């Protein structure tokens, strides 16, 4: 086999045993890696209704064929397990150098089962795995950066790459994440808490085995043409120049920058938190993932009221800037950068954490809670000091922060007094910073996505609008045609074609999360490479005569596995809903008065289930659909 390492590592943490599996090529071609392969082992190993924090949960990390290949946007990995935040399937991705290093260390994935009696970490060097004691690290309160340095010292490999859980996971914060290289995260769905429940502190990897490719020359040419094309692609160039925060201004002008806990799509101080502002003030340098020439990652150096923000922890992404910024009405990039650093040091998802604090701020502003509830903190919009005080409580699970550390949906239940009306979650996971009141295809995708609202599970509405000046022949529309999308739609509407757009691009994104490709480089419309290059790259790496149809089917298989997992837990259409507040009109800016209409969501759901081949009444994949995808075993 080309591309793959050909080996999957199985670690039974209860027994402390490690085995190595070598699946056959047919298995690899069917599940490919990433999220789908993780789901395969999760579905096989973890029974329905298992406790997400018990030994029966299975935590998987997977990469795929092209991980570690010298081309942009390939060094990503997925984490998969039952989520303690949603009680359903959990899924998260992260990039950097750890994924490529795992391939070089000789493995395509790691399947972790059981629960270690004592804290341990997993160390893999050139095909040789071992479990080492981590009691000296557990409970130490050391920030992730310090733990990473200690592990590198202990294994004697300064070039080892480390993923780990921080002190927040050890203390039980529900949205704890898995921190990667201290400055990135497998952020969503609380998978850091799952890893901590297994008493697994970290996974360090180091290797020297480069993957063998079917057609190395084709990869060299694709890499060269992509890199040369960056200046011609305004979206990707924007990422390179200003990071993911390059979209702050655009989002604000469209009225889709969530502000004051999703009350408005317009933040009057958005310029203060933009990627351009960051570049002009606190940006130290760009960072990148293995072999990626886009270099979208930010590294900042600054301070907030005497507390240093170190470049070691990178810099805030758009989502972090929004959740701790506009969601909370805060326009201080230094304070937001410090919040980002605290989340990285302690190991929590910045989206869930920032959004939960914004939710608490709205409760305070509306006098649902007061200083007696918050322990004296006047939790007002725009107050960065108050935000940081509460954040420090959340990561420590102390004071009022202990309530918020369960996530906003659980916190609302505990608080009562109508707090649930202010919750902005789907399946208990906080919404990211792209607004479905305007981008109507996202209203559908946020509702149906199996692991809660996700902005990186489909293409957004602005890519599929008519372009009469160019006879509909721009980059987006040319690429979307390859997915059978030939009828771009005007404005912010929901109709049958829009549902088709959402579904087909969802399948392509689902493929990306299975092939563990970066969605800023590979994708259906705006990225450096489109569907044609997805096919060309997969062929060059694996030698398989893969097609766009096969790519889409791989994405469809993974989507059905996610849904099937949830169905086993008893979840289906009943959970495909949106928070109440999204049905109320937005206030201010270009999206003033816009909302999601209940009837348009209902229409979109019915149309979507038909397209997906799922039962319309229950939203569950039919037996026929599962059989069509070779998933009759579920
Ligand atoms: S585009 Fe950014 S996130 Fe994606 S691989 Fe490149 S550097 Fe990493």
Topology:
Layout: E1 8-12, E2 17-21, H1 25-31, H2 34-45, E3 59-62, E4 77-82, E5 89-94, H3 98-104, E6 109-113, E7 120-125, E8 128-133, H4 144-155, E9 161-165, H5 167-170, E10 178-180, E11 184-186, H6 191-197, E12 200-206, H7 216-229, H8 234-242, H9 248-254, H10 275-281, E13 283-287, E14 297-300, E15 302-304, E16 307-309, H11 318-324, H12 333-346, H13 350-365, H14 371-374, H15 384-396, H16 401-404, H17 408-415, E17 425-426, E18 429-430, H18 440-448, H19 475-481, H20 496-514, H21 531-542, H22 548-568, H23 598-612, H24 623-628
Parallel strand pairs: 1-6, 7-12
Antiparallel strand pairs: 1-2, 3-4, 3-6, 4-5, 7-8, 9-10, 9-12, 10-11, 13-14, 15-16, 17-18
The structure holds iron/sulfur cluster.
Sum up the structure in keywords:
634 residues, globular, six-stranded mixed sheet, 13% strand, 24 helices, 38% helix, alpha+beta, single chain
Summarize the structure.
This protein has 634 residues and is α+β, with helices and mostly antiparallel strands. It starts with 7 loop residues before the first strand and ends in a 6-residue tail after the last helix. Iron/sulfur cluster binds next to loops.
């Amino acid at each position: 086999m080309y591309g793959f390492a050909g080996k999957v590592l199985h670690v039974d943490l209860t027994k402390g045993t490690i085995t190595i599996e070598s699946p056959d090529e047919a298995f690899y071609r069917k599940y490919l890696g990433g999220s789908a392969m993780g789901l395969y082992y999760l579905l096989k190993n973890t029974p329905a209704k298992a406790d997400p924090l018990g030994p029966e949960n299975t935590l998987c990390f997977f990469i795929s064929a092209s991980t570690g290949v010298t081309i942009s946007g390939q060094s990503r990995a997925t984490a998969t397990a039952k989520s303690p935040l949603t009680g359903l399937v959990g899924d998260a991705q992260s990039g950097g150098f750890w994924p490529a290093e795992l391939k070089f260390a000789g493995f395509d994935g790691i399947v972790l089962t059981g629960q270690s009696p004592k804290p341990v970490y997993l160390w893999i060097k050139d095909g040789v795995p071992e479990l080492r004691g981590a009691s000296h690290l557990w409970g130490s309160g050391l920030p992730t950066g310090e733990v990473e340095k200690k592990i590198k010292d202990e294994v004697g490999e300064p070039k080892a790459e480390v993923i780990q859980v921080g002190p927040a996971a050890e203390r039980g914060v529900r949205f704890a994440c898995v921190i990667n290289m201290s400055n990135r995260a497998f952020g969503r769905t609380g998978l850091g808490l799952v890893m901590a429940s297994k008493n697994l502190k970290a996974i360090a990897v180091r290797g020297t085995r480069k993957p063998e490719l079917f057609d190395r020359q084709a990869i060299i040419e694709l890499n060269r043409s992509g890199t040369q094309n960056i200046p011609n692609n305004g979206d990707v160039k924007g990422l390179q120049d200003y990071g993911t925060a390059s979209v702050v201004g655009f989002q604000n002008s469209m009225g889709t920058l969530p502000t004051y806990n999703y009350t408005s799509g317009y933040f009057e101080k958005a310029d203060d938190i933009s990627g351009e502002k960051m570049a002009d003030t606190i940006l130290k340098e760009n960072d990148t993932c293995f072999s990626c020439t886009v270099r979208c990652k930010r590294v900042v150096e600054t301070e907030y009221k005497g507390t240093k923000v170190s470049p070691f922890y990178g810099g805030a992404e758009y989502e972090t800037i929004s959740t701790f910024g506009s969601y909370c009405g805060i326009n201080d990039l230094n304070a937001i950068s410090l919040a980002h650093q605290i989340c990285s040091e302690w190991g929590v998802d910045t989206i869930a954490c920032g959004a939960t604090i914004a939710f608490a701020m709205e409760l305070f502003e509306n006098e649902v809670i007061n200083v007696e509830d918050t322990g004296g903190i006047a939790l007002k919009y725009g107050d960065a000091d108050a935000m940081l005080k509460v954040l420090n409580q959340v990561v420590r699970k102390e004071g009022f922060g202990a309530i918020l550390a369960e996530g906003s949906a659980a916190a609302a239940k505990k608080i009562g007094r109508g707090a649930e009306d202010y919750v902005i979650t789907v399946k208990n996971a906080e919404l990211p910073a792209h607004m479905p009141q305007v981008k109507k295809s996202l209203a559908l995708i946020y509702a149906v996505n199996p692991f809660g609202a996700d902005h990186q599970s489909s293409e957004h509405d602005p890519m599929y609008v008519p372009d009469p000046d160019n006879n509909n022949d721009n980059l987006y529309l040319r690429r979307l045609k390859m997915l059978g999308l030939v009828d771009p739609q005007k404005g912010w509407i929901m109709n049958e074609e829009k549902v088709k757009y959402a579904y087909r691009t969802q399948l392509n994104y689902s493929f990306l999360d299975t092939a563990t490709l970066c969605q800023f480089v590979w994708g259906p419309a705006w990225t450096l490479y489109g569907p044609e290059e997805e096919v060309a790259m997969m062929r060059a790496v694996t030698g398989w005569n893969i097609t766009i149809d096969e790519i889409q089917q791989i994405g469809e298989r993974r989507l059905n596995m996610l849904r099937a997992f949830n169905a086993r837990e008893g979840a289906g259409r009943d959970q495909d809903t949106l928070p109440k507040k999204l049905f109320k009109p937005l206030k201010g800016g270009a999206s003033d008065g816009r909302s999601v209409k209940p009837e348009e969501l209902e229409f979109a759901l019915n149309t979507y289930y038909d397209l997906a081949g799922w039962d319309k009444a229950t939203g569950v994949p039919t037996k026929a659909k599962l059989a069509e995808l070779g998933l009759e075993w579920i």
